[in-house]
């Protein structure tokens, strides 16, 4: 039983960040900022950003800001502020890439 539990954990850990179904086939980017890892998916004018790893209770506001900065830096597009959905673990929204 222990062997199977270890195998399941190993397989899940190898998966990394996976996109939401609407981002299947999207461009995938991986980056680090301030010691944290982020995965960004861009498809047409939409994005999804996923933070990997643990965040302490008081750091969530700062992480949300960093996530948005990372998206704009990687995609070279501006985020449409009124389209942002999500939290400090995963966010989605629309981009203006004109």
TrEMBL record:
PROSITE patterns: PROKAR_LIPOPROTEIN. It comes from the Bacteria. Keywords: Signal. Residues 1-19 form the signal peptide. This is Uncharacterized protein. It comes from Gemmobacter megaterium.
């Amino acid at each position: 039983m222990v062997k199977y539990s270890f195998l399941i954990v190993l397989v899940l850990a190898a998966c990394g960040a996976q996109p939401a179904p609407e981002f299947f086939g999207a461009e995938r980017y991986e980056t680090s900022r301030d010691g944290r890892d982020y995965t960004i998916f861009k498809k047409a004018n939409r994005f999804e950003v996923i933070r990997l790893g643990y965040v302490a209770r008081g750091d969530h506001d700062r992480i949300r800001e960093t996530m948005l900065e990372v998206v704009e830096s990687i995609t070279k597009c501006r985020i449409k502020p009124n389209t942002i959905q999500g939290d400090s673990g995963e966010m989605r929204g629309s981009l203006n890439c004109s």
